[in-house]
Amino acid sequence: MKFGVVGLGNHALNRIMPAILESKNEVSALTTQNEEKGLKLSEQYKCVYSKTLNDMLSEDIDAVYVGSPNYLHYEHARKSLMKDKHVLMEKQMTLRSSEAKELISIANERKLKIGVGFHLRFQSGLEFVRKELEDEGPFVINGRWCHESSHATPTEESKWWTENEKVGGGSIMGTGVHVIDTIVSLFGKFPRKITAFRTPDQRIIDDTMMVNMQFEKGFGSAFSSREVKPVANDLNVLTKSENILCRNFFSTGSPVTIFVNGEKVEEIPPINPYVQEISGFKEYVFGNPSKIATGNDGYRVVRIVEDSQKFISMVR
Q1: Backbone angles phi, psi at 36, to 5 degrees
Q2: CA-to-CA distance for 19 and 214, rounded, in angstroms?
Q3: Residues spanned by the domain of 300
Q4: Residues 6+ positions from 230 with CB-CB distance below 8 Å
Q5: Do 27 and 8 form a contact (C-beta atoms < 8 A)?
Q6: Of 94, 116, 138, which residue is a domain's last?
Q7: In whole angstroms, what is the distance from residue 118 CA to residue 286 CA?
Q8: CB of 20 within 8 A of CB of 52?
Q9: Mean per-residue pLDDT, 105-121
Q10: What b/e sequence results for 65-97 when a residue is b if at least 16 CB atoms lie within 10 Å of its CB, and e otherwise?
Q11: Is residue 211 part of a domain?
Q12: Strand (E) positions, the chain?
């Protein structure tokens, strides 16, 4: 598959673009307003550099990876879809659920596919938990992902992470959305009720946030923080008969150790989920079974974050 890339930040450069090559696909075109950077990368990847997205969309590409800042996801994805390109979007899909819904509608009308970069969908530990829950009744899922902020001293390219209207949140956008997607994918449905809390509660760009969700078959809580130390990124599932702990679940560089009722049952070596994400997106485009998060999955997370922010504003 031939990819065009818009948004040449650290994630695209260090994870997604190498994964495109490793998965035997092509970076065929890229665009950035930074001409020096664009030309250098086009030489490295032996691809076309375009000064604008519109120019890139005229190139021979099958799909566009949208890794631009959050507030540009909708615009860049919409333009790509209107030029009949499949779209793989970085999380969070859009800042508003209405925008996500519109993108899904356009894709359906034009028979195109939207994938969303929730790479932990390919975490092997997720399948272990999913199988354990097949015959269970109500259960409780707790996920937490805590880390120090990488945007404490923003560069010119990353300063949008400090602007409310461009980023839409702090820890919730950095890591929390991954935890939410994991929980929702295990329950398989949109939650019936949502409550949320954040600190500082008066700021959209939070340091710490908790999103609580009630489902038909149980409860889920997603905790994200830029302040809590030591770093924690575990997934814990409680059923009537089992206590399943996946240590280091929300990680891409450490083994995932699984404990059931306090006993270690499996250690899963680290994988490169970004390679699997690209391969999974390609399979999805070609109509084959895939674990990729779809546009509908991305929409659910946008709705949950949106409803969480509304709840906090309402009860503050």
Answers
A1: -60, -45
A2: 36
A3: 123-270+294-315
A4: none
A5: no
A6: 116
A7: 19
A8: no
A9: 98
A10: bbbbbbbbbbebbbbbbebebbbbbbbbbbbeb
A11: yes
A12: 2-6, 26-31, 48-50, 63-66, 86-89, 114-116, 139-146, 193-199, 208-215, 218-225, 235-238, 243-247, 256-260, 263-268, 293-294
- Please give the C-alpha separations between residue 190 and each of 181, 217, 219, 298, in angstroms, as whole numbers: 10, 11, 12, 12
Give the CATH number, domain containing residue 61.
Answer: 3.40.50.720
Amino acid sitting at position 214: Q
Query: Mapping DSSP to helix (H, G, I), strand (E, B) and coil, where does residue 157 land?
Result: coil
Amino acid residing at 41: L
Q: Which two tokens stand for residue 148?
A: 């120090």
Q: How many CB atoms lie within 10 A of CB 37?
A: 15
Provide the edge-to-edge strand list for the sheet that holds 86-89. 48-50, 26-31, 2-6, 63-66, 86-89, 114-116, 293-294
169 and 103 assigned to the same domain: no
Distance CA 29, CA 26 (A): 9
Number of domains comprising the chain: 2
Average pLDDT over residues 117-137: 91
For residue 151, what pLDDT band results from cuts at 50, 70 and 90? Answer: low
CB contact at 8 A, 265 and 258: yes
In a shared domain, residues 88 and 188: no
Residues 83 and 161 in one domain: no
Q: Letter for the amino acid at 55?
A: D
Domain boundary among 116, 143, 178: 116
Q: What integer is the mean pLDDT of 290-310?
A: 98
Average the pLDDT over each of 2-6, 240-244, 292-296 and give the range with the smallest value: 240-244
Q: 96 with 132, same domain?
A: no
Token pair 């030029």: residue: 83
Q: Do 132 and 238 belong together in one domain?
A: yes
pTM of the shown model? 0.96
Distance CA 47, CA 49 (A): 7
Residue 3: strand, helix, or coil: strand
Confidence of residue 228 (pLDDT cuts 50, 70, 90): confident
